[in-house]
Amino acid sequence: MNSRILKLMFITAGLSVIITHSAVQAASPEDGWVTDVLGAPFEQRTFEMDPDYEGEVFITLVRSLVNPEEAAARAVLYVHGFNDYFFQTEMAGRFNAEGIDFYAVDLRKYGRSWRSHQKITNVRDLAEYYADLDKALDYIRGAGAGHIILKGHSTGGLTTTLYAADRYGEGMFEALLLNSPFYDFNAGFFMRRVVIPFISWRGKSNPDKLTPEGAPGFYGASIYAGEEGEWDFDTAWKGSGVRINYGWIRAIRLGHKRVGRGLRLDVPVLVMHSDKTVPENEMNEILFTGDAVLNVAHIKAGARNLQTPDLQLAEIENGMHDLILSRESVRNEAYRVMMEWSRALKPD
Predict the structure, then answer these.
(1) Where is the Serine aminopeptidase S33 domain positioned along the sequence (predicted)?
(2) Model confidence over 223-273: pLDDT tens digits?
(3) CA distance 156 to 294
(4) pTM assigned to the model
(5) Which of 64, 73, 78, 229 shows the smallest number of beta carbons within 10 Å?
(6) How far apart, in whole angstroms, are the C-alpha atoms of residue 120 and residue 287?
(7) For domain 3-345, which architecture applies?
(8) How far apart (Å, rounded) are the C-alpha atoms in residues 138 and 90?
(9) Using alpha carbons only, what angle is made at residue 160 by residues 156 and 163, rounded to the nearest 5 degrees?
(10) Strand (E) or helix (H) holding 142
C-alpha cells in the first residue's frame, strides 16, 4: 500500500497525536477528590477500571461545581474527542453560570488517564468506553443530579451517539449535546471506499499494526497558544504528529457504519457544527473560519440518521472544528445556542 496515500488520509482527517513523554501524573487517591492540574475550582478523581489487553486501566473524572456544599439538580458530563482531554475551563464556567454542575471524563488511555504501559488513544471497539461512561454517569447521578446532559465532541460525539443508542431506555442521562460529531472520515472517495475499509479489515486480525507516520496538521497550531491560537494545553496529551493503530481505525469505521444505518435514541439531541469545511493544507486565516478536521456535510448526513423524539441541528457561522475553541464572537454564539437549548430542557 502506498504510504504517501496513508499519510495524506490522516493529514486530511486531522487525526494525529505525538507522545512527548512516557508517563502521566500519578493517580490521585482513589478515596476522594484532589485539586486538578487546572487548579481550583477544578477537582479530579481517578477510578480504576477492569484491566484490558494492555493491562491496568483508569479513567479520570474532573468537576467544577456550582456549590461545593450541595449538588445542583442538573449536571453535564463532557466527553472529549480523539487526541484530546479536558482543558476547556471557559466551558465549565459557562455551564456553572447556568446553575449546572460540570463534569468531564478523560477516557481510558487519554490525558490524565493515560499510563506509560498503554498506547495513548488505543481502542479496538468504541464500546470499550461504555464502562467509562457508565462509571461517570453513575457517580454524577449518585452525587444528586436528577437531570444530566451528555455532551460529546468529535470522536466523543460518535462514541456518545452509539452509547445513547445502546443504552436506549435505561435512563442513564436526559439529553445529548453534540459538538461536531465524527460521523465519517474527512477524505476522498478512494480513501473512504477502498483504503480505510482495507485497513479496517486488517485491523480485525492485527489491531496493533501502526499506520505510517503522518505530518503534523495545522488545526492544532491554529488553536494552541504556543503557536497561532489562544488556548493553553498539555501537548503531551494533545499534540501533533503520528501513528494510529489499525484497531482504532476499525473501531471508528464500524461506528460510522452504524450511524449510516440509522440509530434510535430516546432523548432530545442537539447537533452543532460549523457552516463550512475548510482545507488544512497550510497555516492561514481560513483555518479560523471553518471546520478543518471534519466534513460538515458528513455531520449533517449522520445527524439525519438519528431517530429521536427531538432532533435539532445548529449551524455556527465561522465555527472551528471544536466550536468552543473558535474565536470569541463565534464561540459566544455557540454557547448562546447550547444554553438556550439546555434551558428549554429544564425540568419543571
Answers:
(1) 73-324
(2) 999 999 999 999 999 987 667 999 999 999 999 999 999 999 999 999 999
(3) 13
(4) 0.91
(5) 73
(6) 27
(7) 3-Layer(aba) Sandwich (3.40)
(8) 25
(9) 140
(10) helix 130-143
